[in-house]
TrEMBL record:
This is RNA helicase. Residues 25-53 form the DEAD-box RNA helicase Q domain. A motif (Q motif) lies at residues 25-53. Residues 56-231 form the Helicase ATP-binding domain. Belongs to the DEAD box helicase family. It comes from the Eukaryota.
Amino acid sequence: EEDVAEYKKSLAIRASGFDVPRPLKTFEECGFSSQLVSAIKKQDYEKPTPIQCQALPIVLSGRDIIGIAKTGSGKTAAFVLPMIVHIMDQPELQKEEGPIGVICAPTRELAHQIYLEAKKFSKSHGIRVSAVYGGMSKLDQFKELKAGCEIVVATPGRLIDMLKMKALTMLRATYLVLDEADRMFDLGFEPQIRSIVGQIRPDRQTLLFSATMPRKVEKLAREILSDPIRVTVGEVG
Ligand code: ADP
Ligand code: MG
């Protein structure tokens, strides 16, 4: 625990303005807790993928990020691992309600995959993950959210439904991930995304991942991220 604090302190010194933290080469450099390291090893993740090398130090430093990398490059762990650290850092976990980490994804399949990945890394920390997407009973999801969670993975439409039903509040939410932002736009979710973002406090950390960066997505990123660092890995259109 102390190691990650030291690492983050060193990042905070370097991560101001355009001063981008150096990419890392190993998971050990992150100073993750021993539980998190063993959860990573259990997945047979020997070393971070290129997007993880670049994104982990930036996100752990607290900066907003635009991550552009193609499918299969390991973006999920790039936002889930720092999210675990962020949640474990909250001084008074028990006092308020509602998720701390909010992840939006375009489809139920993707939301479910992220849910499974988040569960693998959060289980040993006692962090609860809920998934919320269409095709499941709204009442069941309402009950699950009411029981409480620290991470919610959702498709935008269903998350809006749950917010309207007051199944959850965004009072505690300080870490927002928009995954596959280009696909969410293709599916017409821009208004829902804007509504969700508008319900989350402005001093949040915001992460936007996308395989491509069409102008509409660029515009949204400029509006909702604050002083983001952009990372592009591989050839992207
Ligand atoms: P993306 O979101 O960029 O499409 P995913 O996060 O779904 O990619 O990861 C793609 C695959 O790579 C998954 O099967 C995941 O478990 C695996 N993976 C992620 N990070 C690593 C790593 N550091 N080492 C080995 N495999 C990894
Ligand atoms: Mg992905």
